Structures are given as C-alpha cells and as structure tokens.
Amino acid sequence: GAIADPGKAVPLVPGEEYLLYLVLHPEKKVAEDYLKQGLRITEAIVGATHPDVTFSLSALGVLYTDMRRYAEAEALYQRALAILEPNAPVFETRIARLLHSLSVTYAQAGRRAEADATQARAATLARRNVGKHPDMALIMDAFAVTLKKGGKLQEAEELRREAKRARVAAD
Questions:
Q1: Residue 79's pLDDT band (boundaries 50, 70, 90)?
Q2: Distance between start and end Cα atoms, the chain
Q3: Is residue 67 scored above 50 in pLDDT?
Q4: Whole-model pTM?
Q5: CB proximity list for 156: less than 8 A, separation 6 or greater
Q6: Residues 6+ apart with CB under 8 A from 83
Q7: Which of 164, 129, 128 is nearest to 144 (CA)?
C-alpha cells in the first residue's frame, strides 16, 4: 500500500516530509492530486475527524495559498482547527502552526486585520509551548514583526528576545 509516485514508494498515510515535498512540487496540479489522494486515503483509514487528517488538510492549505486559492485554503485550515481545538491542550503546537499558516493566507489575500488577529492567537500558543517545537520561536518572531509594524516596539522587542532565548536554549 503506497501512493503511486513514479520511482518512489511512499507510506500509505503520508508523513509531513512527503507532504512538504508535494507542496514544493513544481507541478501544482500534480501536487494537488497527490495531496487530495493522500487526504482521501487518510480519511478512509482513520476517519474524517482524526487528528492525523490535519496534516493533509494543512499541506493542501499551504498549496492552495501558494496557488492564490485563498478561500479553499481558509476552509481547509478551519476544518483542521475544528478537529484539533476540542483537544487543544494536547495539540497546542499544531494549532499554533495552523493558525500561523492561516494568518499567512489572510495576509496574502489582503485581509490584514484577520491576519494580525490570527497571528496573535498563534503567538499566544507559541509562547506557551516555545520549548516544545522549533516552529514556536519562528511564530513568535513573525508576530514580533507585526507588532513592530504596528508601532508596539517594546512588546515586539520583548517577544523577539523571548524567541531568541528559546532558540539558544534548544541548541
């Protein structure tokens, strides 16, 4: 049981590395087809509301944002959040990453206020979980840039320093 890929067998339920490979694939339609296939397979194996489904939803969201299909990307992120948020304490780092990706989608779609609010939510979760995943410091840095642009220089600098301390501690 592998997803058909010329010259390469991949796991039945795609991992994050494979999903990233597909998102970066130069042929966006090919990537979309494989990601949708992976989503269907994952849903068939674990069910449509299982947390593992959110990896495929997020990868498709990233791809759709890249393809400027913002409404579709938003819907996928919202679906993934609806799966994870009922068990938020267990999935806070994943929720933070989803919120950050959703904020990027909003920003690229020109929805700045929603982007900033969503990014603030992501940063709050990232701050609470900064030592648990390397992306948490990156999310904090991204929000620090937003704060700086909004004239909140002291808050931005404090958040940036906190993210830097977390990176140093992880090394």
A1: very high
A2: 38
A3: yes
A4: 0.85
A5: 144, 145, 146, 147, 148
A6: 49, 50, 51, 53, 54, 57
A7: 164
Is the distance from CB of 145 to CB of 118 less than 8 angstroms? no
Long-range contact pairs involving 112-119 (C-beta distance under 8 Å, separation at least 24): 116/146, 116/150, 119/143, 119/146
Provide the b/e sequence for 77-98 (b: ≥16 CB within 10 Å): bebbbebbeeeeeebbbbbbbb
d(CA 161, CA 47): 41
Residues 85-130 pLDDT 10s = 999 999 999 999 999 999 999 999 999 999 999 999 999 999 999 9
Count other Cβ atoms within 10 Å, centred on residue 135.
17
Please tell me the distance from the alpha carbon of residue 64 to that of residue 59, in angstroms, as a whole number. 9
C-alpha span between 60 and 40 (Å, rounded): 12
Mapped onto helix, strand or coil, the DSSP state of residue 149 is: helix
Task: Give DSSP secondary structure letters for 53-92.
Answer: HHHHHHHHHHHHHHTT-HHHHHHHHHHHHHHHGGGHHHHH
Please state, as a whole number, how many other Cβ atoms lie within 10 Å of the Cβ of residue 2: 11
